[in-house]
Design a protein that fits this description.
The protein is mainly beta. The protein has one domain. Helix content is about 15%, strand content about 35%. The protein has a 6-stranded antiparallel β-sheet with strand order 1-2-3-4-5-6, covered by helices on one side. It is globular and about 40 Å long. It starts with 5 loop residues before the first strand and ends in a 9-residue tail after the last helix.
Length: about 110
């Protein structure tokens, strides 16, 4: 990100005059923690976003326990070109949460 860009919070930032937001929530239908990245465009009816779903190794109760990274799913919804610095920031936010873990056998 450049000096003209602004990080407003871990979940909201500006890049190249555009506003981007990350939402995170427990997605109970799939038993996973979900992170979604999208561009905030109030004049658009499109639903373009990317999401990362991290399955819960302890889905029957208790605190969320992330599975190893080889079971994490990345999905693109709609048609969207993500600027590399924005995508990199998205990955940094998820990594900072502690929800991405490597294979426990390594």
């Amino acid at each position: 990100m450049t000096a003209d860009d602004e990080i407003l919070s871990n979940n909201l930032w500006l890049y190249d005059g555009k506003r981007f937001e990350v939402n995170s929530f427990h997605y109970s239908d799939s038993g996973a923690w979900s992170y979604e990245l999208y561009e905030v465009t109030p004049d658009s009816s499109r639903n373009d976003y990317v999401d990362v779903q991290i399955p819960d190794a302890n889905p029957d109760g208790g605190p969320f326990v992330p599975v190893p990274s080889d079971r994490v799913a990345f999905t693109v919804h709609g048609e969207w070109n993500i600027p590399w610095p924005v995508f990199r920031r998205f990955i940094e936010v998820i990594a900072a949460s502690g929800d991405i873990v490597h294979d426990r056998t390594e």
